[in-house]
Amino acid sequence: MRENAVAREAAEAVQVPVGTEMLNGDLRVPTGAGGVVIFAHGSGSSRFSSRNQQVARCLGDRGFATLLLDLLTPAEEAIDIHTAEHRFDVVRLGHRVSAAADWVATRPDLQDLPVGCFGASTGAAAALIAAAERPATIGAVVSRGGRPDLAGQALQHVEAPTLLIVGGGDEPVIHLNRQAMSGMHADVKLEVVPGATHLFEEPGTLDQVAALAAGWFSRHLRRTPRP
């Protein structure tokens, strides 16, 4: 019954302020949510990413609120389609994930919930940069086929437990993830999904990603009772 109830939860269209700009997002908050996960999409992607939506549905079934956010404004997206100049600006994107975490704290229905980040591709670097910027707010990070190495020096300042999920057939990215792990002091784990390539398009592989992410957030995101 819980899964059916969660599936009927309608997304709330929200706007997250970042300076003078507004970022569009889709927020789902299941009844009795135990945490909220902010999605940092990969290069050239958006809140409409079918893969991240699938993971978000799984997290919703496990009782997590989810915020799928466009990290670029419509004007920036229009430029980026032709130039790709914004999608790799992980520092800017990381600041925007931080702003999203700040915005979550302003929502009465979310402000008492622990916050996690799920990053895909270059979005993983943005999620880790945000975790370094908001160590008291972001309690856990999961990366799917990510480029955590692009977070650079921010990696050593990440305190949030971090799960790196990579496809077994994505050898170059496995190497880059191991390289990033060597620069981290946080609790970090690498999970390799056998038979999966970079986009986890193989049958059942994205389901494994979703299950791993849900397990990680369930372990590391804990609601703290009010004093």
C-alpha termini separation: 33 Å
> What spatial form do the alpha-carbon principal axes imply?
globular
Classify the fold: give the CATH topology: Rossmann fold
Report the uncertain regions: 1-8
Secondary structure: number of strands:
8
What would CATH call the homologous superfamily?
Alpha/Beta hydrolase fold, catalytic domain
CATH class: Alpha Beta
Q: What profile does the largest beta sheet have? A: 8 strands, mixed
Radius of gyration: 16 Å
CATH architecture grouping = 3-Layer(aba) Sandwich
Strand content: 15-25%
Report on the structure:
The protein is α/β, with parallel strands linked by helices. It has a single domain (2-219), classed as Alpha/Beta hydrolase fold, catalytic domain (Rossmann fold), CATH 3.40.50. It is 36% helix and 23% strand. It is built from 7 helices and 8 strands. The protein has an 8-stranded mixed β-sheet with strand order 1-2-4-3-5-6-7-8, with helices on both faces. β1 and β2 (21-28) form a beta hairpin. α2 crosses α7. It is globular and about 40 Å long. Residues 1-8 have low confidence and may be disordered.
